[in-house]
Write a structure and sequence with these properties.
With 240 residues, this protein is α/β, with parallel strands linked by helices. It has helices spanning 7-10, 30-43, 53-57, 62-70, 76-94, 104-113, 126-136, 159-168, 182-190, 204-210, 225-229; strands spanning 17-20, 118-121, 142-146, 175-179, 194-198, 215-217.
């Protein structure tokens, strides 16, 4: 595992840290989530618009989406039971398909070689985050894993990214986040971070036109540490 540097050592080597969302960023899991949500809503006789469903669930914490479809008076215990119903089905369906997005491993290894600490900040339940991180074999690269279970206010609130930066020991403004969803990008930018949007879940044109992501790419194959440092123009180049 890489050893994180302190702020003074990082002053000319931003980003100080890299923080990754999970679904649609570490793995192409969102099609499986959509499939299980469709099955779930049909099973519970809930009407929905298929075209609008991705924006209503992707990047959202499950309790937010469940209350949207089933009513705001849904109790916490009921949410937890329904969430486990959803996510247990997801884990079974997705297990054989868990693999990193193209180019992700190369970027993680490059960040590791550059001494850039990494963390995960996902709205998913902790059981899902641990499942995916371990299925990919990425546990050794992440200093911290923050799940939706560990924050009081879900994305698009910036709490989860602020918490991840705090755990890593860096100012949020010195970190870069990787996101795929509208609410996730809003969360990262609300925390004051630079944000790279990966067009894995939504069209690249929509992400460019409808978000304030600092950089929008089709895949991690278009990224390098040099690109990440270029997001911090005033501090990314060491003094000659």
């Amino acid at each position: 595992m890489i050893k994180p540097r302190n702020e003074s050592q990082q002053k000319n080597l931003l980003p100080a840290a890299a923080i990754f969302d999970m679904d649609g960023v570490l793995v192409d899991s969102n099609p499986f989530h959509l499939e299980k949500w469709i099955e779930f809503l049909n099973r519970h006789h809930v009407s929905f618009n298929r075209a609008e469903l991705p924006k209503l669930i992707l990047g959202q914490r499950n309790d937010t989406a469940l209350r949207y479809f089933l009513g705001q008076d849904l109790r916490k215990e009921e949410c937890r039971e329904l969430e486990e119903e959803l996510e247990a089905a997801f884990r079974v369906a997705f297990k054989a398909h868990a693999k990193p997005l193209p180019g992700l491993l190369d970027l993680i290894l490059e960040c590791s070689d550059a001494g850039i600490p990494m963390a995960v900040a996902s709205s998913a339940m902790k059981k899902n985050v641990d499942f995916v991180v371990d299925a990919l074999g990425f546990r050794e690269y992440f200093f911290y894993v923050v799940s939706g279970d560990e924050v009081s206010i879900p994305k698009p609130d910036p709490e989860i990214y602020l918490k991840a930066a705090q755990q890593l020991g860096f100012e949020a403004a010195h970190c870069v986040a990787f996101e795929d969803s509208f609410v996730g990008i809003e969360s990262a930018k609300g925390a004051g971070m630079k944000c790279v949007a990966i067009a894995s879940s939504f069209p690249i044109q929509e992400l460019r036109a409808q978000t304030n992501a600092d950089l929008v790419v089709r895949s991690f194959e278009e990224l390098s540490v040099v690109d990440l440092r270029g997001l911090f123009p005033s501090t990314s180049k060491p003094t000659p």
